[in-house]
Amino acid sequence: MRAEEAALLQRAAVLLKTTGYVTLSTVSDEGEPWASTVAYTPRVEGVPRLIWYSMRGARHSRNIEAHPAICGSIFRTDLGASSPLGLDGLQLRGSARAVPAQELPPIRDYFYETLFPDEGVRRQWMLPESEFTGDGPRRFYELTIKEWWLLDVDRWLVDKVDQRIALPGPASLSADALFEATPGG
């Protein structure tokens, strides 16, 4: 991998690991668009995925059930000196799904362990598995990233043109890169 591609993937890893919120764009059966912001945790095993939970009846959840192809945007404006503009953004396209009950335990554990490393705090926030299965009101969802783009900061600095840079395939991002990602690092 070229150094330039590695640097772009590092920026993507920082955004995935440190942002914590993604705005999802879904569409209903009637073709009505909808945007929702959800708290997520990233997971890299083969290709990057975003994991979150939502109410089953939420508009974006119903839209995902009907049309799993969705887009998302992750954006930070607090990067200070670690970005020439103090900000950075990642746009993505992929496929989302509700996590089936048989796959739920490791996803649920990963989500809560990542968001709440302290076991005592995790116990306070962790909802029972029954909330996410059967008639439970919530579901865990995962978005598998198929394509993604970064804000072209270099271009903006030259001529103020707002455009994106296509990143190498999402499978190019390793779990190690995500684990080690820190702003400015």
Automatic annotation (TrEMBL):
Domain Pyridoxamine 5'-phosphate oxidase N-terminal per the UniProt entry, residue ranges: 13-150
Entries under Pfam families matching the protein: PNPOx_N
Species assigned in the record: Chondromyces crocatus
InterPro entries membership: Pyridox_Oxase_N (IPR011576), Split_barrel_FMN-bd (IPR012349)
Protein name: Pyridoxamine 5'-phosphate oxidase N-terminal domain-containing protein
Domain of life: Bacteria
